[in-house]
């Protein structure tokens, strides 16, 4: 029963796709094609992310992460979070395991949020594409709006989340394996 409860959303989704395929075969096959594409993408992205996470976890001591991105890191922690997030490759779901390792290493919560925000909006390849496709003024304007916006959102969230909630998030990150 516990297994059914754990995978209920997956099972409901499978049931919906089966019913959809019975009702409208072309729509069901299209949905299965999307699922297949997404699975292939995840299989190509997730293993390298976890290899890099393992290396980060082993090679970078907690003290160094705390020094450069922890509570007392100030501006250098913000800048490092933006650089790491901007230089990252892969879809946004790859950022969350990295953020979990950052939390285990004692990275300040606002810097974790800035890292996730930078991963999602300030990637270097995306910036270069925007420069070539939409023009340099657009790309620079978007970047100059996004960076302060990410920082503002991160600090606003930190003010809105209680210390107990934040400690609970860090506790859950510690339990992550």
Automatic annotation (TrEMBL):
Coiled-coil spans in chain: none
Membrane protein topology class: Multi-pass membrane protein
Domain of life, per lineage: Bacteria
Location within or outside the cell: Cell membrane
Keywords, comma-separated and alphabetical: Cell membrane, Membrane, Transmembrane, Transmembrane helix
Any one cellular-component term (Gene Ontology): plasma membrane
Any one Pfam family match given in the protein's UniProt record, by short name: ArsP_1
Major subcellular location class: membrane
Transmembrane segments: 7-23, 43-60, 80-103, 143-162
Family under the similarity heading: Belongs to the UPF0718 family.
Protein name, entry field: Permease
Biological source species: Anaeromicrobium sediminis
Lineage: Bacteria, Bacillati, Bacillota, Clostridia, Peptostreptococcales
């Amino acid at each position: 029963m516990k297994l059914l409860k754990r995978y209920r959303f997956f099972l409901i989704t499978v049931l919906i796709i089966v019913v959809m395929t019975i009702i409208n075969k072309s729509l069901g096959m299209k949905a299965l094609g999307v699922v297949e594409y997404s699975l292939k993408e995840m299989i190509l992205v997730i293993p390298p992310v976890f290899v890099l996470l393992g290396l980060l976890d082993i090679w970078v001591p907690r003290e160094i992460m705390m020094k450069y991105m922890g509570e007392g890191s100030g501006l250098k922690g913000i800048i490092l979070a933006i650089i790491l997030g901007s230089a990252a490759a892969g879809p946004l779901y790859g950022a969350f395991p990295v953020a979990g390792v950052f939390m285990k290493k004692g990275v300040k919560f606002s810097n974790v949020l800035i890292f996730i925000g930078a991963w999602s909006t300030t990637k270097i390849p995306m910036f270069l594409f925007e420069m070539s496709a939409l023009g340099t003024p657009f790309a620079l304007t978007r970047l100059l709006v996004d960076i302060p916006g990410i920082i503002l959102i991160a600090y606003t969230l930190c003010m809105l989340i209680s210390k107990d909630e934040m400690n609970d998030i860090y506790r859950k990150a510690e339990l992550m394996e």
